[in-house]
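Technical annex B. To support the medicinal chemistry partners, we prepared a structural model of the target in complex with phosphoenolpyruvate, based solely on the information shown next.
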Amino acid sequence: MPKVYLFTDGNEDRLQLGNKGANLVTMTKLNLPVPPGFVVSLGAFAEYKRTGQLPMKEIEAALKALQRRMGKRLGDLMVSVRSSGPVSMPGMMDTVLNVKNEGHIISCIKAVFESADSARAVEYRRINNIPAEMAGTAAVIQAMVMGNADQRSGTGVAFTRNPNTGENSLFGEYLPVAQGEDVVSGRRTPMNIEAFRQQLPEAYAELNRIGHVLENHYKEMQDIEFTVERATLYMLQTRSGKRSGQAAVKIAVDMVKEGLISTEQALMRVTHTDLDALLHKRVDPSNTIKPLTKGLNAAPGAATGKVVFDVREAVEWAQRGPVILVRPETSPDDIVGIHAATGVLTSRGGLTSHAAIVTRAMGKACVCGASELNVDLGAQQFTVGGRVVKRGAEITIDGTTGNVYLGALPLVEAAIYGELDELLGWADQNRRLGVMANADTPEMIRQAIRFGAEGVGLLRTERQFNEPDELATIREFILADSPVHRSEALVKLRKMQRNDFVEIFKALDGRPVIIRLLDLPLHEFLPHEAVHDPGIRSRIEELQEVNPMMGHRGVRVGVTYPELYQMQIDAIADAKAAVSNANALIMIPQIITVQELLWVKKMVKDPSAKVGIMMETVRACMRADSLGSTAAFFSFGTNDLTQATYSFSREDVEKKFLPYYLDQGILMDNPFETIDVNGVGKLIETAVKSARKANPDLSIGVCGEHGGDPRSIHFFHNAGISYVSCSPFRVPIARLVAAQAALDEKDRLIRLTRDD
Ligand code: PEP
Ligand code: MG
């Protein structure tokens, strides 16, 4: 196999020529103005690494051919020597310009080959997970064109479309009387490409034409390097250009309309990170202020506001302007404050802590587990690295990155626009997974519908007791000292719940809603602060548990306090009677046996009502056949199922040992974020199989945090799950990724058939 290839040889094998080399060959084939040259291949690189020898004979022959082509001898002819890896590593390897003699040409090739193992290249590969087999480089030797020859010469970089907005027009920079290194080194500041158009209109028009030729060939937006020598344009490099989320969406959709790519290709080109960045407010990308500290990026979006520590104060101050609620951690007691705040910052708690889940569901920014933060509730201040931030000071939190800043930084709005809608419409036509939302209030439901949710896959009813009146009434129920007081509280609760459900059904306008009956242990509704009343104190003590997550919660509350579940079931029926197109399903949490399901089903008077269960205990997964033939549907509560499978407390693990496990590589991923395919995933697959055997049409969803996680969505698609349910702000991401999972599967099937 040859080790050296002339650009005119026509070989475009990226694994031999690297990206730059292969693209120069392609441009030569397309008759674009590429200064001639040749590539010393990756095969030569591998041999050099083994033997220390370069293929001298082939290099000399290629040099001769180059000299003949240029009609110059080396010495008069100058060349550049650049790296060309199979994976682009911008700026990581050596480039040598203006090489004049053969001995220098040879040492430069060696230098380029050696630079593939430089510390910064190794570090770059580590950070970007580039595998070792992709670590090599070819060397590109190319005749120099002189961007510094005269006033009508220069060098530049251009994108065929705007990489920030996606707008279809040439975007870039130009430096007159300069060589590439002058731009890269930052020694001189380049001018806007518009200046190039004005100075050299013909060369600009040629660049524009070439941009179109390249896009037509690669079907991708290109990032081009060019040089102008005495008003003649030369192409030095092209590759697909990096772009912002907004640009990724616009370019993909525009290219479909221009007939360059199919809708399927467009869907595969936009990533979930592209969408994530689009759907929330962000810190202005031009910000240069350094963060004060960093925590976990718990709920995406950025928020600015005045620091408050007290929940009541949060509600009060929020009427006058945005506030950020700062707490060591949050509990259900803090809900009104969280609701009023624009963002939440905690010093403890992980990505499935109360603060994280609640804010994500509400679409509020949250940074949690910022462990450098010392929150002093008594003094109404927090300190970090010796700096004191007092109540009322303005801060900015960025829940997308986890950064916390002093002061109110400028934010940019989430951009939802026509192209995104179009792209997601194509996603809906291609996906098999349903996409529902976890939403608890009419406001959130409307948001979820705007983002394309088909309905609500999880409505946590305990969240309805966040309002002060509801909270007070459920406390009355829990603390009632007589059956009469207890039923009085129940009557009030039924009415309140009914009214809530009516508003919820109206917001859904006929779409389905899965209402989960109470899951929370009752003591969570009682005051957390010091209580003086001895009666209340003893009731709190009675309800207190050592291990509440595994204690008296879920259906166990429904079994021991049947009147509570009965009240909820009746309130749902009352509301259904009031809203003609209501489509409500009832879901029971924490089921372990079919007997519990039958126990609750007895309370449901309407024979047409659908009663399903949450699959969040290991036993339920093992009993999926009998449960599957009795339940109307399943929904995997993967938060609790992960907790139960690992015996990791979801409230504590992320602030204790999990980061260490991840650092040391004992676990590769946080199992509360990305589904643990080999453990929890096996349970899910087993349960799905045996449930579907018993009941082939059973609808099976996922409503834990994993329902909005891209990698997990791929797994759920392949496991035969019917739908995922996630927080409203993740709905567009789930729609896109569900389509990508379906397209991946189609692709796999096509390849399998071909192999046959
Ligand atoms: C779950 O356990 O995955 C779930 C959705 O329920 P919650 O988070 O409310 O316990
Ligand atoms: Mg649960």
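Notes passed to the chemistry partners:
The pocket of magnesium ion (ligand 2) is lined by residues 589, 616, 637, 639-640 (CB under 6 Å).
Residues 146-243 form a domain with the D-amino Acid Aminotransferase; Chain A, domain 1 fold (CATH 3.30.470.20).
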